[in-house]
Design brief:
Rossmann fold, about 200 residues
């Protein structure tokens, strides 16, 4: 784990109006935490479902948030790597020991390698100009992806700067060397599984 960013409470790692701490506290108030049995159970089911399809040797969680997906995979005995750019997420996830390794970093600037990589409800926060080079560098066998196709009044607050329909996400991934394996309905009905 790296040192804290001194600006963590004055910035928004998601590109939105809210500071990182405000985003984290909103999640806590709205049940997006590891003390919410229903939230944890949902990701336990997601891990079970994806493992039936992929049977991964290892798992990397990009923008892992509070760490529910990482934790579910680690509980299955899968070596787990967690990335997040919000220090409050990372500290919370580390407190619950959700992964084997933690990185406080902008994953788009990293060289990521792994069997199964997941990025759930994160890429709507990142411009294509940063995503394309990252996706071309990414080395993985499978990529579990979900990004909301919907807009809301909270988009500016959350930093939803890259909302696009499913066909545009598929085209972006294909242009970066990925192949759509199948459409999934977990953890969202617009989830997709790619291979590379």
């Amino acid at each position: 784990m790296t040192n804290k960013n001194q600006d963590a409470d004055v910035r928004n790692s998601f590109g939105g109006k809210w500071k990182d701490h405000e985003c984290f506290m909103w999640e806590m108030r709205n049940g997006i935490h590891l003390e919410n049995r229903h939230f944890v159970d949902m990701y336990t089911l997601v891990a079970s479902q994806i493992c039936e399809v992929v049977n991964p040797r290892d798992f990397t969680d990009l923008g892992g948030g509070v760490g529910a997906y990482s934790r579910a995979m680690k509980h299955r005995g899968i070596h787990t790597v967690y990335y997040d750019a919000n220090i409050h997420h990372l500290e919370y996830a580390n407190q619950y020991n959700v992964a084997d390794r933690y990185y406080y970093a902008d994953f788009t600037q990293q060289q990521i390698e792994g069997d199964l990589v997941a990025c759930i409800e994160v890429m709507e926060h990142i411009e294509d100009s940063d995503l394309e080079p990252f996706l071309k560098r990414l080395r993985c066998n499978f990529f579990h992806f979900s990004s909301t196709p919907h807009t809301s009044d909270m988009d500016a607050d959350w930093g939803h700067i890259n909302i696009k329909p499913e066909n545009e996400w598929i085209a972006l991934f294909e242009s970066c060397g990925f192949k759509l394996q199948q459409k999934l309905n977990y953890p969202t009905q617009w989830s997709l599984l790619f291979s590379k």
